[in-house]
Amino acid sequence: MKLSWRWAVLMLLCMMVANVQAQRVPGNLRDDLKELVQTPAIPGYEQQLAALITARLQSYSPKTDNMGSVLVTMGTGTPHRLIVAPMDEPGFVISGITDDGYVRVQRLPQTGSLPLFNELYSAQPVKIGMAQQKWIPGAVAGLSVHLQPGRQHPPSAADLDDTFIDVGAANKQEARDAGIDLLSPMAMERKFFEMGNAQWTSPAIGDRFGDAVLLEVLRHLDPQKLHGTTTFAFVTQQWTDARGLDRVVESLKPDELIYVGRRIRASRPATSTETSPLPGFTQKPGSGVLVASGTPQEQPAGLAGELKELAVQNNVSLNSDFSAPITPPVTRGSLPKQALPARTVHLAVATAWPSTPAEYLDAHDVVNLVALLETYLQGTSAKVDLPAAAAIAEPAAPSKPNAAPGNEDILRHLIETYGVSGGHEAPVAKTIQALLPSWAKTEIDASGNVLLHWGAAGTPHVLVVAHQDEIGYEVKTILPDGRLEVETRGGGVLAYFLGHAALVHSTNGIHPGVMELPEGWEKSDFQWPRGARQTFHVDVGASNPEQVAQLGIKVKDWGTIPKEYHKLIGTRASARAFDDRMGCAALLSAVWALGPNLNNRSITFVWSTGEELGLLGAADVARRLAAEGHEPEYVFAVDTFVSSDSPIESKRFADAILGQGFVVRAVDNSNIVPHPLVDKVVSLAHAQRIPVQYGVTGGGNDGSAFLQYGSIDVALGWPLRYSHSPGEVIDTRDLDALARIIAQVSRSW
User: Fold this and answer.
1) 408-443: pLDDT as tens digits
2) What pairs with residue 351 in β-bridges?
3) CA triplet 178, 562, 208: central angle to 5 degrees?
4) The CATH fold of domain 28-89+203-266+279-378
5) Which of 117, 230, 355, 728 is exposed most, by the fewest CB atoms within 10 A?
6) H or E stretch including 358?
7) Looking at the domain that runs over 407-470+564-748, which CATH code has it been given?
8) CA 635, 618, 670 angle in degrees (round to 5)?
9) Where do runs of H (alpha helix) occur along 298-362?
10) How many CB atoms lie within 10 A of CB 721?
11) Helix (H) or strand (E) holding 119
């Protein structure tokens, strides 16, 4: 009995030790990479990411050197192996704040080959770092497509002199009071998405997979199986001359170096006169582990050769591909770099669209890289499971409110609901119906328009219309290689969408993917394609039509760009699709304010479809009412007043200021409001102390569809910055003013 008892205790202790060993690094590969990529870390500002990594490695008692690199060392004696992954990503640092509250930036790294990097930040949601590892949202200013026709020399999105960050501040002091200051870091807002077949995408994923690999190796590592000394280093400032790596090598003087990080583009020195093409990458995601070399054809030798042999023995795919050196050559005025060990190898995995917001990798390649390193260090490797990606559910419609919801709450619900032009607006219609008071009985017609008519019977005297739809894409063809050919549904600047994450909406949910960039995007003479309606490609992680079908995607499904409502400083907010969810929200707010009894007035509110494709839904309503003899006398079309309230727009027209009230859209491309009626609206607003503006802008409005039937179109709007972009900016005070004037014209016009 004593022997059995002792054996039981021994077994329990062994199980406890094994469990502690298994939990030395909590988490798993997928969750590690998700958290790593969602933590911005530009060069010199890696502290938050370093703290995250340090917390993961707490059981190893990690150390931090004077450059901020995180190191874990185990074992003694020789050889001394150094396994390195970089932490940083390209980004920006605040270099100035203008008197009117815009933030100016300088890129880090300041030089180097980063094709389209600046352009793909244009009109995007970003975040700026502050003290205590907090971040404040902002949006990069972008050109509004409606204001560009006829403009001769618009600013270039590639030029940092034309780059301004909108944080919602009206002046420099407001920005500073919010915590923004010189030298604050700025990076793109990002999410981690799982595409089909374990293809993972996020900005900076090519800069973080190495960190996730090292964490996974440490999770499975048995220190007793190591020979000599092994140091794992998560280094800083790789993008700025590899300063963190240089410091670690100088300090440790290792016998062997394995660098785990992205392939590095070739960069021609500024003094070079060569014109021959620079070498590029050849391997694509799914190519297994890559050994980086000066030429793709170079055969692995030395340590690389040993790893190649080990990969063959353990059935791990390993190939060669080009990469520039992990430490840049010495430049004029620089001190000599510490020489890397003779036994140095750079291991990588292929990423598509490198250093763009659409960058993605194949998780199977990362798993193979983990297995190779574990086998090299301790002779065995652990199994790494990759969770199957499921479709993301469409956002649910809100619960029916018992009392009038706040205007911003209405707007947030509408913004975070997806609904593209061309028959894909049904989710928005459900949200609109859910947010109406219980007494409001709506009709949805054959075109998907939501109509609410109440008051006296007979001909509607006043009709108010705002459109439900947003710009996006529709799946036109499924190609033999599994990519989706999509057609635009509404126009926008291509750099705002291509090269970014995408969402494909099907009957079984939302499927993440990426919008591919046009051919030649990485070349210095690249020009964006032009044309009205164009087709582009979306990669959802499928390799053939069968895999697309397995995901549940089919022709006529629709695509969008991810969006989220972000509060900025004060009463400002940023998101995509304020055009025309602001109008929809204003109508909803006005319904609550008006109530069910209209004192013998006849009012029709319409939330229309297909506006971005040519006022399709409004045209159907106008045609039907005219056929019934019920055409309205006045139509108040509520849509964006695309504003030049931006440092990169011409103030020649569209000069309505955010926060100074709703706008009478007196002249646009589709309608001219009779001037006496402009004056009437302005007088009505002044009488009710509603802030009002008026002016000329671009684009068209739904009310013009009623003109041919004898209606008068009095277009209303609100000022919007950076229209048809992921980083649109509004002021919620203008929403309040817009809702009030709609209620007032419904009562008294």
Assistant:
1) 999 999 999 999 999 999 999 999 999 999 999 999
2) 361
3) 75
4) Aminopeptidase (3.40.630)
5) 117
6) none
7) 3.40.630.10
8) 70
9) 303-313
10) 27
11) helix 117-121
